[in-house]
Amino acid sequence: MAEANESDPAAGSSPQFPRQCTDSSERSLSEEEMEKLRNDRVLVSDFKQQKFELEAQKNWDLFYKRNSTNFFKDRHWTTREFDELRACREFEAQKLVMLEAGCGVGNCIFPLLEEDLNIFIYACDFSPRAVEFVKQNSLYCPERCLAFQCDLTKDDLRATIPVESLDVATLIFVLSAIHPDKMRQALENLYKVLKPGGIVLFRDYGLYDHAMLRFKSGSKLGENFYVRQDGTRSFFFSREYLGNLFHQVGFQTLVKHMTIGSRSGAFVMDHSKQLT
Fold first, then answer.
1. CB proximity list for 83: less than 8 A, separation 6 or greater
2. Strand 145-149's sheet: what is its strand order?
3. CA–CA separation, 132 vs 153, rounded Å?
4. What per-residue confidence (pLDDT) applies to 34?
5. Contact 261/238 with Cβ under 8 angstroms?
């Protein structure tokens, strides 16, 4: 576990989070699974990879056109999975300011808005269609939520969100959809709008997830990076890769519990002005 340095001026006033770090464990692969991964060496052509990158937004927009608001279930587990969301207030009456990056159609934000009446949520997504679905939801209230379209890898969040104003940001099954070469830009973008001592709640695909092993030959874009039939993509994280990625930007790990080989990984990253 890592936390804000004592030299960080915000460290003394930050809320106290549960001091826990559960060692990650790796799922044992069967011989058949190991053989499948060893033999899956052929990568999608550079031409097609460039096409998938150029059409990434289009492919996600088509995904939401096909599935509307019916594909993902509402995430009522967020506060259960992340105790830190309850613990990050400095005082009981504090109004939390939060960003859900990659909000989809609002499966996370609307349960939170119903559960916590003292929270304001910024919600952004790569897909304009998804953002429209959020705005059309009967629970959407501009006084409590602001939804906007954004490419985290190039659109400056500061155009919508004041610098260092967020208490919390979430990245739930979002970073895996971004090309590995652009993940750092997305995290740097988030870093600029988080308060010193603010946190990122992260959940995503772990290395050797069953979803990774279901990809057929011809779907591999690079190491641990695959494309689905609909053109959307998914990266599968090892704990080392993920930790290094966040730390390079300036985040520190507060809480980590992750089972490699499942999608139950959960990291809580602290915004710090210094690397450790």
1. 18
2. 145-149, 119-125, 96-101, 166-172, 194-204, 265-271, 251-257
3. 21
4. 86
5. no
